[in-house]
Design a protein that fits this description.
Largest sheet: none
Number of domains: 2
Helix content: over 70%
Order of helices and strands: HHH
Oligomer: single chain
Number of strands: 0
Structural class: mainly alpha
Length: 132
């Protein structure tokens, strides 16, 4: 074998030998690092899945709360409309049922005149009942 062939042979074996030596020196430590790295990767994947699940749950709750809020707004509008309608009806009733101011004024004038002329309240009431 020539020097060149021996040198080529030692260079070809050299990377394998270096790898073997590296495995002997650092192999156990590298396996520990690899196992730790794999465990961290599994934990990260599990946490990502949990995060995705929680994000979906939050989105569902957000949609649910939005729907509930819309329902409440509709209900409040309906209650507000009903209350306004009831107030308008009450105002119309009060407007139509109230005593006419002119008639009430004339009644008080007549009452005052009757009392001023010496009449009694009982007589006035009898006259009012008889006239109606």
């Amino acid at each position: 074998m020539t020097d060149e062939q021996a040198q080529a042979s030692s260079q070809a074996g050299s990377p394998r030998e270096v790898e073997h030596i590296r495995d002997i020196i650092f192999g156990a430590q590298m396996r520990e690092y690899d196992q730790s790295f794999q465990a961290v990767r599994r934990d990260l994947e599990r946490l990502q899945q949990e995060l995705d699940r929680l994000a979906e749950k939050l989105a569902d709750q957000d949609r649910s709360q939005s729907k509930n809020l819309q329902d409440l707004r509709r209900e409040m509008r309906s209650a507000d409309d009903d209350l306004r309608d009831e107030l308008r009806a009450t105002a119309r009733t009060l407007t139509s049922d109230k005593v006419d101011r002119v008639a009430l004024g004339e009644l008080f004038i007549e009452l005052g005149t009757h009392l001023k002329s010496g009449g009694s309240m009982a007589d006035l009431l009898k006259e009012l009942v008889a006239s109606s």
